[in-house]
Structures are given as structure tokens and as C-alpha cells.
Specification:
The structure holds two protein chains of two kinds.
Chain A: H1 9-19, E1 26-27, H2 28-35, H3 39-51, E2 55-60, E3 69-74, H4 76-87, H5 95-98
Antiparallel strand pairs in A: 1-3, 2-3
Helix pairs in contact in A: 1-4
Chain B: H1 3-12, H2 15-27, H3 36-78, H4 82-99, H5 104-112, H6 114-125, H7 138-144, H8 148-170
Helix pairs in contact in B: 2-3, 3-4, 3-5, 3-6, 4-5, 4-8, 5-8, 6-7
Classes of the chains: A alpha+beta, B mainly alpha.
Chain lengths: 110, 171
């Protein structure tokens, strides 16, 4: 049986963490440090969320000429989904309620 | 990771994954020095996992093709009609090209050189079947490499069939 694409604990924790400030842009290291997730697990999780349109990303170019950093923020869809995850208190949310028919991504079909 | 390793990692990853590698590398200078080794190990794990996913099918298919190639070679040593060997080469080449559609030429080379490689191996190890003179001279072994041509054509046909199928599915 195929595993739901966003069923991992890391992704759930990541969504819940970003939901604390949905409009805030997060650094990868900040997320990793706060949640105690290694880079090797966090970046694949971020990649999945972004490819499903739950996350947006941009490069931050420091004005002082420092090195650029990659930033992440929940999209409106991502916030909706993250809220449903948080409301489910660890249980997988009812994706049909979150994603009305046409908008449901493929990974919701377990 | 060191700059040279970074370059190798960039080459090995798909463009989608490359941007995540860039993101992780850009973050490295901001990581606490005490945690930097762990951060780099995480990046290395990411690269290895993504590369394994990218190359696993191709590596398994190429390994299987080598086994098939030797099987064809040994069959050729034990069966009389050469047309059977040629048919096997064409079938294996087409199947290999279908599976390895991006590297169809590799399937053609592996399958096409099967009889030549097996003859060389058998000659070196003195394993030819009783009552059967194997082609063990260097010239005959090199001449057998001409089979790379029909095998490559079959592989190309297999790869084309796969691409057409993918194209149809996408539409």
C-alpha cells in the first residue's frame, strides 16, 4: 500500500512549526535547529511541500553584501493544510475537507 | 562539504534537487560552528539519497544487462544456429533500450558485445564446451563486435517506443 506523501512525522512537525507564524519567512537552519531535524531529512520534506504548492521559497540577498540565504513560508494552501494537521492532533487530516475535489493533490490518494 | 565535492554533487543531482543542495550549502556559513559537521553530514546524506534514487534503476538495469549479455554469449556457445543468437541479441537490445531509454546506446553496447566478451572470457579461462571450437583468436573476437550495430539499432527502437509511450501518457 502506498504511503501518503505527507504522512511523515517530520513534515507534520514542520507544518505545525511554520503555522505558528504563517506569514513569516523561515531559514532552513532555523527550522532544523528548532525541530532537531537533520538537513538530510529536512530538505526532502521542504522539497515535497514546495512541489505540492504548500510552501513558497525565495532567496534573501543581504544588503550588507553577505551570502544569500534560502527562505521558506507557507502558502495559503499550506496554511489551510497545516491548520487541519494541527487540528487533527497528530492524526492524518480529512483531506477531502481541506481540498475540495478539484484541488486535491495526488498524494492525498493513499 | 568541500568545494570539489560540492561540484561533484551538483553534477550528480537532478536540477530540481540541485536547487535544494544550493539552499543547504548557502545555509552552511550561518550554522553554529559546533553543529557544522553534523549539518554537512546531513547535506551529504541528502545528496546520497537523491543520487541513489536517480541512478538505482539505471544501475540495476545495466547490471541485469551484463548478466543477460553473458547468458546470451554462453547460449551462443551451446546452440548451433546463429540466427537464434542474433534474435536473442535483438530482443535483449530492444528490452534494454526500453528500460534504459535515456542511455539506450549503453544497452546496445553491452548486449552487442555479449558474444565477443563471452568468447574472450571463455578463451581466457579455457571453458569452451566439449566438441565446440570457440572463437578465441583476437581477430575473431574483434570481428564479433560488429554485433554492437544491430543491438544498438534494436536498443534505439526500444528507447523510441518508450519515449512515444511516455509522450502519449503525458498528453
Amino acid at each position: 500500500m502506498a504511503r501518503p506523501r505527507h504522512s511523515s512525522r517530520n513534515i507534520t512537525r514542520l507544518l505545525e512549526h511554520m503555522l505558528e507564524h504563517p506569514s513569516k519567512w523561515y531559514h532552513g537552519y532555523g527550522i532544523s535547529r528548532h525541530l532537531g531535524i537533520a538537513a538530510g531529512s529536512m530538505y526532502p520534506a521542504l522539497a515535497r511541500l514546495r512541489s505540492d504548492g504548500l510552501l513558497e521559497a525565495r532567496w534573501e540577498i543581504p544588503e550588507d553584501g553577505g551570502r544569500p540565504r534560502h527562505l521558506y513560508r507557507l502558502t495559503a494552501r499550506g496554511s489551510t493544510f497545516a491548520r487541519s494537521v494541527a487540528a487533527g492532533a497528530g492524526a492524518r487530516p480529512d483531506v477531502e475537507e481541506v481540498w475540495p475535489a478539484a484541488g486535491a493533490p495526488a498524494w492525498t490518494q493513499a | 562539504m568541500r568545494p570539489r565535492l560540492d561540484r561533484v554533487a551538483r553534477l550528480l543531482l537532478r536540477p530540481d534537487d540541485r536547487q535544494w543542495l544550493e539552499a543547504a550549502l548557502a545555509e552552511t556559513p550561518h550554522v553554529d560552528p559546533n553543529e557544522r559537521a553534523e549539518w554537512r553530514a546531513g547535506i551529504a546524506a541528502f545528496v546520497v539519497r537523491r543520487c541513489a534514487r536517480r541512478f538505482a534503476v539505471a544501475t540495476a538495469a545495466a547490471t541485469a544487462l551484463v548478466v543477460v549479455a553473458f547468458a546470451i554469449g554462453f547460449l551462443d556457445l551451446n546452440i548451433e544456429p546463429t540466427s537464434v543468437s542474433l534474435l536473442l541479441i535483438l530482443a535483449a537490445g530492444a528490452t534494454g533500450g526500453y528500460v534504459l531509454h535515456r542511455s539506450w546506446w549503453l544497452a546496445g553496447i553491452i548486449v552487442g558485445s555479449s558474444i565477443s566478451l563471452t568468447a574472450a572470457t571463455v578463451g581466457q579461462l579455457d571453458l569452451q564446451p566439449a566438441g565446440r571450437a570457440a572463437e578465441t583468436s583476437a581477430t575473431s573476437i574483434l570481428l564479433l563486435l560488429v554485433l554492437v550495430a544491430p543491438a544498438s539499432v534494436a536498443s534505439w527502437a526500444g528507447a523510441t517506443a518508450r519515449r512515444r509511450r511516455l509522450h502519449t501518457e503525458r498528453d
